[in-house]
Amino acid sequence: MELRDKRILVTGGSDGIGRHICLKLAETGARLAILGRDETRLQAVAEACKAAGASEAIGLTCDLQDPLAIDQTAAQVVERFGGLDILINNAGIWHKAGPLDTIAREMLQATVQT
Fold this sequence. Notes:
The protein is an alpha/beta fold. It has four helices and four strands, in the order βαβαβαβα.
């Protein structure tokens, strides 16, 4: 599949698997919108993606548990890129909490809602 100049949004792109997804996509020359919660890490990933060959890479902070924030961020991306071709929904809160029956309900909800 040819990904050069494809408009791709990656959630949870500032760290871990999401960061590596972004860097691999950058090598193809894709245009990347990278979402996460940490502005500093997002900007570092966006810069690394540009250096790796992305035709464009922007980092945007977004709390994926907030529907209004999602709508606003999606509108920003569509306005900037003129639409989207691919969504990679990688975001997720991960809690090192032990067995399932010991995890607080709020933690489980936060994990599922991202």
